[in-house]
């Protein structure tokens, strides 16, 4: 063996270790032990020893070397590189790479003290703030004991990093996500009270609310990728309130979102809480505002999502909208057993409580969701202070898209038609226009603005969905209370509702018409869709025709195909029926058919016309009515004119 | 006097080996009771000689015929059952140390070896820990301990070579016993002071069988605290006994590794064993004063190296420069120097340290040895 006497002792010992490594790892390690013990402050020796163990994939030994390096040689750039590799490996979700896997295994063999030091050191040396935060977070996740000392620091860092980041104003920034989704649960999990000022805690709560609300407002396509996806954001948000509320000594009842939690139960707790507070309840106490606001938004989400229930696979989902429907005092009130209040029902004990109906019993919860939202909304608006605070909160949270539909329903329900119209007027998003027109038509009808009804109806018709749907049996209920209905947005259901509105507009406006024939004809046409539910409309009209002894309706051939109506008209025309003059064929003009026998040809023609109409009775009524309303707009409008405007 | 006679008379009515079993219980009563006396002790020793080991007859005369192999086996079984069921550690060790005391061990070593062999094979932690206490009290490098260890090695490494699980698992049964056993084993090989080998020239040293070497290497590699195990746990001894400090196997086994290259024992295990020993040394807990390795014990490697060098010089007429560059010699010296350095650094050496550093100067030149010598000098000067 050649011995280079010029070499320094240290270099010699290290060289020997390196030399023997290839052929004899055990001998190399013996040299390394010797070198390490002789030159404990020589980084190169220690690092070489580590490299040898790492190359040989000796996890335990490498961990031992790495520990010593971390404790003694934090200033060595070569070690930094290694530490960097380690932290990269730790953060990687899956380690297919052999070296990364080794680094992770080695990390597990380090003492927790060294692990802690290592992560803290790395975080402190990290120039990229995001990186720094991620590392600190990793540290806290692995070492819960470090939470109370490093948690608050990380909170500050994340808040200021967010402020200075590019998208500082947008609540779903990566920093915010770390803060809310990763750090807050850690702070919450720590049993020891974390030292955060109440101001900071409120700020955190605010940020959490903003974050989750904004997240919930995202459409599903934006949150498909796993980076941003959050499982069960609501329970996370409730967790945050629970944690922060406890820190701020809030009423425990309001912070209990445990498994038996229900909307109704929580509402009772809020009511109880409000009752327990005296009038001079301190305004700066935000617990009611936050708990109530979050609860309200939660209910609002539930309500909005219940409006479009999930459909079974392969079927198009149907959205429901609240419309004011009809009630008829002459009918028996079968829809709702009166005054039978269920325990869980929220306050609906007004004298003439409006009745809410839905197409099927399984949609009953839509109504419950609405009523809870309404109660929250009323409570939020019951005090100036709450109202002001909620507006302030809302301006940060940007809840308007969420609220927009509810406030219309609310105004509608409360009979605040002008407000409802004002809200509706603001709706300009194309997918929501159909809903807007339907509701506008309905409101205008109830406001008795008959002549204005036609426009929204004609705007709605071209927008009818392809989803066909069925006729509803629930648009009219007995009794004289107000009636609200969750109308499914299907072609038939919408058309049925709109024709019902139009029919009633025409009928109620009939008294102002000099001649009723046009109105009667339109009503005949319109009632055909919802036959025989609208059958009751017909007899008074026939009576009117009898009285005037003639009936002129030149649209007859185009639109009247209902066999029952045709039969009734034919009967009136016959001798037994009273020989009512039917002016239903425009080409016959004003020729009278009065003179006996003189107009035998005319009679025959009418007979033929009626027969022709009967053969058409199987035609699609929806298409027929859509074209009727759209094509005969001017004629329809004529029957809707208010008095003295002609 | 009468109880003594009655006792013996009673036992004499029993046949061997029933009387041995009975005698063991009487012996326990005599020497482990709270109040004991020289008289009781003498009686117990009588009972052992006459009824347990069947060495003397009723008149105290040496029997012409000792135990037959079958009787010996029966006795071993009785001893096993007896010790394995005794619950008090102090009682177990008291009886064990009296049965196999320094004065009687020569004649009883055969039985002892078979008995402990069974303790390893079945196994029994209780029996092995008593045997460990026994080795330690006798001195684990004493000729009797070494002979005893040799007997076990015969059993496990020469007779039952095919089945090694039992012996491989030995540290799990009793770490202290394994440690003391290792110390004794270490002395049996590469050793000129051993009576057996004094007449042999150094080249005819006895080397450990490969299987033993592998087992020892495995034990120490897997458990860095094995070497100091006997020092870590003190056996419970009879009242009044002075506990003897156990010698660790470190120096003895290092000697194997140091001398192996020059005796052309190039089995890979020596490198691994050497590394395992260094690792074990690194794990030695601090103690004041140090007690893990005796400097003189290390010094004993020097002479064989010098003899080897002289042999090369005289018999093969090699030049000194050639000898120095002999790979085997340098490897041997590297290992030696590494060991000294590591032991010294963890402050585990006791005895005449200065003497050791003085003596290594006469060894042929080795760079590492030179470095550690200089370091030692500097350190002494600084101090």
Automatic annotation (TrEMBL), chain A:
Any GO CC annotation of this UniProt entry: integrator complex
Subcellular location: Nucleus
Subcellular location, principal: nucleus
Swiss-Prot/TrEMBL GO biological process terms: snRNA processing
Sorted UniProt keywords: Nucleus
Domain of life the protein comes from: Eukaryota
Family listed: Belongs to the Integrator subunit 10 family.
Matches recorded under PANTHER family: INTEGRATOR COMPLEX SUBUNIT 10 (PTHR16055)
UniProt-recorded name of the protein: Integrator complex subunit 10
Source organism of this protein record: Phyllotreta striolata (Striped flea beetle)
Lineage of the species this protein comes from: Eukaryota, Metazoa, Ecdysozoa, Arthropoda, Hexapoda
Automatic annotation (TrEMBL), chain B:
Classification via InterPro entries: INTS15
Source organism superkingdom: Eukaryota
Pfam families: INTS15
Protein's name according to its UniProt entry: Uncharacterized protein
Species name: Phyllotreta striolata (Striped flea beetle)
